[in-house]
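To: structure desk
From: M.T.
Subject: fold request, one chain
Message: Could you run this one when you get a chance? Sequence is below, nothing fancy, just the single chain.
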Amino acid sequence: MAFVTTDDGAEIYYKDWGNPDAQPIVFHHGWPLSSDDWDAQMLYFLAEGFRVIASDRRGHGRSSQIGTGHDMDHYASDVSAVVEHLDLHDAIHIGHSTGGGQVARYVAQYGQPQGRVAKAVLVAAVPPLMLKTEANPEGTDISVFDGFRRALAANRADFFRAVASGPFYGYNRPGVTPSEPVIDNWWRQGMTGSAVAHHEGIKAFSETDQTEDLRAITVPVLVLQGDDDQVVPYQDAAVKQAELLSDATLKIYEGYPHGMLTTHADVINPDILAFIRG
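Reply: Done. C-alpha cells follow.
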C-alpha cells in the first residue's frame, strides 16, 4: 500500500495505476467515501491508455484517521503532497461533489501556479458555496447541515444507509430500482473512514466559499451535473461554476442523480474522455 505523509503527520493513501509516462488523471472522491468510488472511471481510463491516480482524503478510506485538518485548505494541500511526491505534470483533475471543491482549491492554489494541470472536470461539485447566506440567498439553510451532523453523531451507520439508499443515487424516485450492492459499497466506504472526519467534513463541503477559487482557474474545465441531483442543486452549483470559470464547458444531464458517476458511467465516461482529448 502506498502512502504520503503530510507536514502535519497525516498519512494519505493513494493508488497509482498504468504507464508512468502516460498522461495522468487524478480522481478526487466525494464525502464520506474513498478512492474506491472511482473504480468504474479508473478502469475505463486505464484501458484508454492513461495513468490513473486516486487518493483517500484524510480521515477517509485507508488514510490515517487524524483528528485535525478536516477543511478544504488541508484537503488541497494533501493533494499537492501526493502530486509532488509522484511529480505529476500535464495532469487532468476530476472531482465529484466534495472532491470537486478539493479540485477547485488545489488547481487554483497549487496545481495551476506550479504548471502541473492541463484540464479539470467538476462532477456534481459543491462550489462555489452550498450554504445559504446574505450573499448567497438561494443556498441551503444551515439547519439542513445541522441535521446531517445530528444524524451522523446519533447513528452514523443508519444515516449512511439512508443516504445511499435514497437521495444519493435517486433510489427514492418512483420507478427507480435500487441496487443493493451499490448501496452496500457506499456504506462500506463511508464506515471505513473516521466519524470525526465525516462530521467536520460537513462544514468543509457546505460552508467553504470557493468563488475566488473558480475565478482564479484559467485551464479548461468541464462542468457536469444531473438536473435531478437531490444533494447539490445544479442551479446553485454547475450553473454558477460555469459562470465563474473563465473557460468552462457545461453539460446538464436530464434526470441524472448526484451519484451519476456510478449509475450512468456508460454515458459520462465517454463524455469526459472526449473533453480530455478535445
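Reply (cont.): DSSP finds ten helices and eight strands in the chain. Let me know if you need anything else for the meeting.
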